[in-house]
Automatic annotation (TrEMBL):
Assigned protein family: Belongs to the NAD(P)-dependent epimerase/dehydratase family.
Catalysed transformations (reactions): UDP-alpha-D-glucuronate = UDP-alpha-D-galacturonate
Protein's UniProt name: UDP-glucuronate 4-epimerase
EC number: 5.1.3.6
InterPro entries: Epimerase_deHydtase, NAD(P)-bd_dom_sf
Gene that encodes it: LOC102721106
Biased composition (Low complexity): 466-479
Length: 492
């Protein structure tokens, strides 16, 4: 066939679009037009693909990386938060760490960490172990010879590196903290198969009152679904059932104005979603105690502070702002009164947590063993009993840091905050000898000393002077000489 005849004939070409191969017949005379159109179509496809990749990366960063970092501060002087999607996925993902954790070496490590080192010691699973209260309690339990195994999902609500530093601190003391989530029922079952835990100290939760307005689903996933996950495994899988001590919150008192707050006061008017999830947790605890015989103790923490604390707490980010010269925001109630908080030092809270563990009583719904009547169901306040104006707390920080704060005073918004908190601890004092001893001045000195050391700042902090018999640090505190060897961590 002549060459020109072949050129005028029909010829077969293959085009690729989105992975599908199309066979098109075209006439040679129209080739240039079709060729130009195909180039435009190809470019448009590439641009559209790049746009989709960008949008996917922006909206779902947690799918591309398991690590997150926080930088700078929020507009209100608090920490900037990662996307709530990453927090929600970290607590409700279908991925199970039980698939990754296993083998003889891993099982040996788990058993070693959870094994008591003294006769009569208890074996405790601590959830939220790399958090503020969790780290302190884990260190105190280990220091007295109890077995401790930790679990934490290291989410990005605040800087995960601080949690990793706490994890390293615990590892130095022989406490293993697994990177996993409380909603991972398969892993929890595996752990209870490996270790006959006598107790669970459940401190894992999505913390923060104001952040609940931005990411409500994370609070439900962690504080409600996560609590149910722990109760389910303890009630239906563990044998014998462990006694459970868990972190409720003073926020359950909500709009209550009677002071001091007593466990006998009403708690049906929460002022925030965070408070509502904690109140829901107390109702859920009642159900599992009633139906399954779990021994459950809820602890209502009142504004816990101290070394290795949470960067989203006012005392922490106020300290950071004062040092860096950034302004801080102070709230006043509608009647002009300064906000007041029952600031409770971490060592006092640790003593309360251990006291609650030691007096918790046994669960009675185990498959094996004799039933011994109803299991204990208890709720206690753990506070300092001495509310202090937040402006007083700032004045103490200014004195310790040798620098004035740039204060901005505004009326308290309707974002879940309450004008004051004030704890009545009569029940805890009666049942396990809870007596807070640390003043705000002394506690903030301990915190600032740790803060300066942790962030490598060049500041001279006044030496701590103590009246005779007062403010003796517990084994979980960080003194000027031992803060790296004895410090702590979780929620208020």
């Amino acid at each position: 066939m002549p060459a020109d005849a072949a050129a005028k004939g029909m010829k077969l070409e293959r085009y690729a679009s989105g992975g599908a191969m199309l066979l098109l017949l075209r006439r040679a005379s129209g080739g240039k037009i079709v060729s130009a159109s195909s180039h435009l179509l190809f470019r448009a496809t590439v641009l559209a693909t790049l746009g989709l990749v960008f949008l996917f990366t922006f909206h779902y960063p947690s799918l591309l990386s398991r690590s997150f970092s926080l930088s700078g501060g929020g507009g209100d002087g608090g920490p900037a938060h990662a996307s709530h999607r990453s927090l929600l996925m970290s607590s409700s993902s279908s991925y199970s760490a039980s698939a990754a954790y296993g083998g003889a070496a891993w099982e040996k490590e788990v058993r070693k960490s959870a094994k008591p080192r003294k006769d009569g010691g208890i074996a405790v699973l601590v959830t939220g172990a790399a958090g503020f209260v969790g780290t302190h309690c884990s260190l105190a339990l280990r220091a007295r010879g109890d077995g401790v195994l930790g679990l934490d999902n290291f989410n990005s609500y605040y800087d995960p590196e601080l949690k990793r530093a706490r994890q390293r601190l615990l590892a130095d003391r022989g406490v293993l903290v697994l990177d996993a989530d409380i909603n991972d029922g398969l892993l929890l079952e595996k752990l209870f198969d490996l270790v006959p835990f006598t107790h669970v100290l459940h401190l894992a939760a999505q913390a923060g009152v104001r952040y609940a307005m931005e990411a409500p689903q994370t609070y439900v996933a962690s504080n409600v679904a996560g609590l149910v996950s722990v109760f389910e495994v303890a009630a239906k899988h563990a044998d014998p059932q462990p006694a459970i001590v868990w972190a409720s919150s003073s926020s359950v008192y909500g709009l209550n104005t009677d002071a001091p707050f007593s466990e006998d006061h009403r708690t049906d008017r929460p002022a925030s979603l965070y408070a509502a999830t904690k109140k829901a947790g107390e109702a859920i605890a009642h159900t599992y105690n009633h139906i399954y015989g779990l021994s459950i103790t809820g602890l209502r923490f009142f504004t816990v502070y101290g070394p290795w604390g949470r960067p989203d707490m006012a005392y922490f980010f106020f300290t950071k702002s004062i040092v860096s010269g950034e302004p801080i925001t102070l709230f006043r109630a509608a009647d002009g009164a300064d906000a007041r908080r029952d600031f409770t030092y971490i060592d006092d809270v640790v003593k309360g947590c251990l006291g609650a563990l030691d007096t918790s009583g046994k669960s009675t719904g185990s498959k094996s063993g004799k039933k011994s009547g109803p299991a204990p169901l208890r709720v206690y306040n753990l506070g300092n009993t001495s509310p202090v104006p937040v402006t007083r707390m700032v004045a103490i920080l200014e004195k310790l840091l040798g620098k004035k704060a740039n204060k901005r005073i505004v009326t308290m918004p309707s974002n879940g905050d309450v004008p004051f908190t004030h704890a009545n601890v009569t029940h805890a004092a009666h049942d396990f000898g809870y007596r807070p001893t640390t003043s705000l001045d002394a506690g903030l000195r301990h915190f600032v000393t740790w803060f300066v050391d942790y962030y490598k700042l060049k500041l001279d902090i006044p030496k701590l002077t103590k009246p005779a018999g007062a403010d003796k640090p517990s084994s979980s505190s960080s003194s000027s000489k031992k803060k790296k060897a004895t410090a702590m961590a979780a929620s208020s």
